Amino acid sequence: MASVPTLYTRYEATLLSRLRRSTSHSEFIPVIDGLRFLAILPVVVHHLCERAIRIAEDRHLATGSDYALINLLPTGYFGVELFFVISGLIISYPFISAHFRGERHPNVRSFYLRRVTRLEPPYFLVMIGCYLFLRLTDYIPQATHTFSDTSISLETSLAASLVYMHTLLLGYPKLNPPAWSLEIEIQFYILAPIVLLTVLRLRRLPVIMLGILTLTAGSIFASHLLEIQFGPWHAGLLTKFFHLFLAGILVNLLMCGGLVPPRIPRAVWDTGFIGAVAILYVIDKHEDSMLAAAAQVPCYVTLFLSAFEGALFRRFLSLPWIFTIGGMCYTIYLIHLPILQILTVAVMRTSGFVSFVPGLLISGVVTLPILFAVSVAFFLLIEKPCMNPKWPLRVGNWIGVGLFR
Q1: Residue 223, exposed/middle/buried by CB under 10 A (0-12, 13-18, 19+)?
Q2: Closest CA to 300 of 275, 325, 322, 319
Q3: Quick one: which of 369, 353, 366, 368 has its CA closest to 55?
Q4: Angstrom distance (rounded) from CA 88 to CA 242
Q5: Would you say 7 and 292 are in contact if contact means Cβ atoms under 8 Å apart?
Q6: What Cα–Cα distance (Å) separates residue 156 from each residue in 91, 121, 175, 334, 337?
């Protein structure tokens, strides 16, 4: 008879195997999903703290030390910007690797179709689900800014979100505010094949690198001008964040082009990882500027190369639960705020907390396990099946068989 630890180990291994993301390529790279974990973590923590401090403010319990504590934590934007770099890395890899292997580039039509079949079903389900919940229950989110500060109807908000134009036309999405970054991602997905195929026509690696660096510098300068001219409206444009996606492309060029020095000790890479995170943390705490944007690019390039080439952080990012949770980041990103909004308000209003920190801890202990459980269910039932490129064909066959029985 198997012992309890043995049974737990088997159960854990089975669960981790089922939760592991499916990839379009044969090789699974845990470090990439580990980086996704580093990206989703500050987003979730930021939104949990944000809701908790707003409720504490309503009760006049928030103190200066509470705000100081929150300000010590990385903001959610830190995680979102890391997601943008990861997208630049992932999207550009098939094009860049094919170029250096002397193979044909990926079919652009298949590229766009894959983005639609992979990303749209979970996104549409969550946005429509948020709309139906709010419309049918008349639930009014408390301690919010985006929802309460806008008078647009739920129907208008849903329509704008479904076409990824909410931030540009109406401001941050009313139904699910984090969806603003997915609107930026879509703009990059549309533009990426055009940019990559144009730059790769330059053939020689030094010229390609020069082209990407020139594009990076130009995007930072253009972003600065647009920020001055249009202010908040610019937050809905790819130009504000294009340099981050280009940083991911630079990482691929360096690695696929063989430009990463092979003799650098792993300890040096680990030190570079720490230094890059420290500088990015400082940038995260200050106002946007051209200098800050320019500093982000080498920092993110260093962080990613260090994650791949170092020892300590590569090992951490490759831990099973770290890369498994990171692999579910799209699901977690889509559903975390609605769940945190409902549960945090309920917990903090019924727990009788007398200060912010205990209320935050109680909320975290209650809401985060529920968020994880719901994320697992959504990932297994909705997102992971959509990772199979053939799922539309299978659904079509299933419908056809049902109709003609």
Answers
A1: buried
A2: 275
A3: 353
A4: 9
A5: no
A6: 31, 20, 10, 20, 20
Q: What percent of the chain has pLDDT over 90?
A: 64
Q: Distance of CA 63 to CAs 66, 119, 281, 357, Å?
A: 5, 41, 24, 10
Which residue is listed with tokens 């879509």? Answer: 186
Round the average pLDDT of the chain to a whole number and report it: 89
The two structure tokens encoding residue 323: 């890369």
Instruction: Report whether 383 contacts 124 (CB < 8 A).
Output: no
Query: Which amino acid is present at 190?
Result: I
pLDDT tens, position by position, 326-358: 999 999 999 999 999 999 988 887 877 778 888
pLDDT computed for residue 285 by the predictor: 83
* Tokens of residue 135, six digits: 């419309």
Distance (Å, rounded) from C-alpha 401 to C-alpha 405?
6
Q: State the Cα–Cα distance between residues 267 and 272, nearest whole angstrom.
A: 9
Q: Measured in whole angstroms, how far is the alpha carbon of residue 273 from the centre of its chain?
A: 20
pLDDT bin (cut points 50, 70, 90) of residue 212 is very high
Round to whole Å and give the CA distance between 106 and 196.
Answer: 11
Tally Cβ neighbours within 10 Å of residue 106. 18
Alpha carbons 40 and 83: distance in angstroms, whole number: 8
Provide the pLDDT confidence category of residue 25 given band limits of 50, 70 and 90.
low
State the Cα angle at 278 between 358 and 65, rounded to 5°.
Answer: 30
For residue 328, give every residue at least 6 positions away whose Cβ sits within 8 Å of its Cβ, in sequence order, or none: 19, 21, 375, 376, 379, 383
